[in-house]
Amino acid sequence: MAETGRRDGRGCEEFRSIFMQTGLLKHAKGSSYLELGATKVMVGVFGPRQSDRKLGFSDSGRLQCEVRFASFAGGSATQTHQSAAERNMSAALTQALAPSVLLDRLPKTVVDVYAMVLESGGGELAACITAASAALASAGLELLDLAPACQVVRVDGQLLLDPTLAEADQANGSVVLAALPATNEVTLMSVTGTWSA
Question: Where is the Exoribonuclease phosphorolytic domain (predicted)?
Fold first, then answer.
């Protein structure tokens, strides 16, 4: 291990290398590909489309998010329904992004956001949120702000920003935070594990 205690030599408050590109999916209205260290995520945004009549009239639009893990990234090749972890990540993604999108300007419509984790290397939820926010901007939707996200884990009493998969597996606790920098509004704070002073 390096002096910092992290196997990759980063300091406790350092991010992994980041690469992002938008506009790669030609059939999506907006898209984003993000590499955060070994974690790789692709997001496509489709719509807005007319809302299902069964849901009734709504003065504002809806954001519908779905997260999936590719079979080679820990998902199941034969699974047609989302796993519990994928459903939880989908709900968290919706919660993190909805405040950033001006849905009141899209009455009776739905915007679909599909995130695929291509490689699981730690910090998947934060990567999905950040990539999806960029994909929404790429789609030309009116946004209040981008909603970047990051994860912090607690390993042996030490706080580590942007954990690898190995660090996340060793963690006693984890926090994923998404915010709108322009307004300082926290849109998601997901806390798991044990935290004590």
Answer: 14-141, 149-193
